[in-house]
Structure formats: C-alpha cells, structure tokens
C-alpha cells in the first residue's frame, strides 16, 4: 500500500475458477492452494496481471469474464500488443511515457505529514524533538509556484525562509554581492604553522625534498583511501547557478545578515511546493533550537564557497542529489595548508575525510607510481580506518560499563560465546575485554600537500553518519 492505494502483480499464474476447482478435485491441488489461487485481490486499485496460454498462464477469456468493476483497474502483461487490442483489455506498456498514475485523495493532514517527513530527511531538522516539530508546524506556511515563477530576486529585502517540499528551483547567484566568497583566502593570509597546529595535527610537520618512499604500498590501496578523483587541471571556481530540490532550504543568508538583502534570484524550475517562515518565525526557530543558528551560518558560508564546484568535480560525489550535497556541506569545514604538510600519516588511523578545492596532493609511498598528483575535486576518505576507530571506542565503552552500554545501544548484537574460552560465566566475563577488543586499521599511505592547498575536511563521525543516512 502506498499513499492509501493498493496494487497487485500476478507474475506467471493460472486463474480460472472452474479449471482450478477441477485440478483440486483431481488431486493436483490441495484445498489450501486452490483457495489461495482463487483469492486473488481483484479489488485492488491497480492490478497488473499476465495473460497467456493455460494451464501455466491465464487465458484472456478468464480475464474478460471478470466484472467490469475489476476490469477498469486491470492492465495485462506478457501478451502481444495486437492480441491485447483485439481483446479490448488494456496493455501495460513499457517506458516512462506510459507511467500509470493513480490519483490519491487529498487528506486533511497530508501537508503536515509531508512537513514531518521533510524534517526527518533534512540535516538541520533531523534531530528536532516532537515539541520543536509541533512548533514548526504552527509557524510555517505552505505555498506553491509554477515553473518560471520567481520566489525572490537579487536586491530585494529578505523576509522569508523557505524549505522545499517538492519540485526543483534554480538559484542564480549574483557574485558581485557575495563578499568573501573564498573562505580559504583569510586562511592563506595566516601563519601556516599556526593553522596546521590548530586544525590538522598538533604534531604536524613540513617535509623537505627529497623524501624517501616505501615501495611496499601497491596501487590497490587507493581503493580504500581515495574515491572519485577529478581530472580537471584548473582550480575549481564558483558556479553561477545551482539547482535545489526536496529537503533543501533557501533564503537563510539574507535573514542571517544585517542588511537582509537577497544575493540571488531563485526561480522555480518545476512546479514547486515550499513551506516558508517569516522573519519573526525564523528568529523564533533559531532562538528555541540550540546550535541551529551556528549550523545555518556555517552552511550558508560553505554554500558561498567553491564547495559546490568541488563536489561537482568529483566523479562519485557529483552523483548525489541536492539534498545530500547540503547534508555534506553542513558538516564541511575549511583549511589551508602549506606545501609539505602531512595530512594523513602512514601507520596512523584516519580521523578526517578531505575534499580538495585547490592545489595538489600526493601519496608519498606512491609518488613514482602515479603519473600526476591529485588535483581539485579529489576526495579522500578511508572508511575502513574510521569505522575501526569507532568500533574500538564502542568496545571500550562496553568494557567500562556493560550495563549502561547495553541500555544505550539495545540493537547491538551480543558478544558471541567462544567455546575455547571455557563455559564458566565468570571466566567469560573476566575475558570479555579481550574478546571485544577491536583492531584499529591504520592508513597504508602518507597523504601530503605537494603544493599549497585549499581543503574542506569532514570529521570521521560526520562522514560516517552521512554514509549511514545515504547508503
């Protein structure tokens, strides 16, 4: 059942009441099997039923014998178009252009249900409590736009915050109004050593040429450490327009700034359904939701940076939808590093994923194997290492307080009983720590900045949550 509507698909089957009863009486079918075949859900809103030559298929005559009330919801398959036309029954044709649309009635709470579903799928609202969701339902308003309609224009005073329920819109940027588009610029002006100590690693160091490489790492290790490298040779640039879809929110930038002037035209690309909050409702939402303003301000700045183009330049990340891009941008942070900075270290666990926006990176141990260094759009993420660190920490929590841990993570599977450890309960308990110990997987390569580089980094916990939400 979907949206209160039902549909049934027969697959290959034989439906003929008289024929089925005859097969039952001759002992070929049990009473239960016969009853099951006779009890096909013909009353469903949509029925896709095969037609062919009995007894392994259903004859057209059997389908024509069905009541008219059933035939109006019936489409037949596995039959030639000419024969279907001769019978007078409708053929379920292949192709998007032949999509069967079932109209669903409008329900009193349909919009509220859609908004709640939206909250669940939107990164900044996902952790709202029931009371917060209730507040949002009371202060928001629903509005619709036709393709080509302007939601807002450059230079207007921003009065509303929008979240897309359905449809798509184009955001046409006016970069002349976006002061400080380059979030990395201020970092470039700071002392590189202070940045490294603050953001990357307190023990990070610059390396000098030449560097001794270790040949034991093969090119196969790339598969677990880097995905979707880009072949573009130029640094990524800020795109002039972006497409937003369901789950994305718009208009927050103007409401978060003092002058509240819109810096982009927003135009409906398709029929567009939005919920909107006026400035007062928006401020109420920020004031009553701890941390929401910080997350919105950070995402607003990231959106104005080159992150869109960096994501779009990556062969893997470019395939995600606009809502998933926003989820990713919401957990991105910026960093600028000097040439020679070690970002990942061999034989150390990986704690962050990186997206390269400008400059060049390389793996020290594979310097001679790779023809060119990694350039803008390359994404580095060692999921195996990150997961091993997470699982190790969870195991330590289990060991520290197994009762509390079991209550906090009820879905975790129990530690299996190991026969060679002995069958005594006390012995199992005393050795439980060693049983649950998780091996941490370290990086097999050293990732280093070949030139000065602009990067976006994502903490391990954030990228793992993103992957869990977007399998």
Automatic annotation (TrEMBL):
Pfam family, one: cNMP_binding
Any GO MF annotation of the entry: protein kinase A catalytic subunit binding
Biased composition (Low complexity): 216-235
Domain Cyclic nucleotide-binding: residue ranges: 124-286, 316-397
Region described as Disordered: 206-238, 392-431
Gene Ontology CC terms: cAMP-dependent protein kinase complex; cytosol
Superkingdom assignment: Eukaryota
Full protein name: Cyclic nucleotide-binding domain-containing protein
Organism: Mucochytrium quahogii
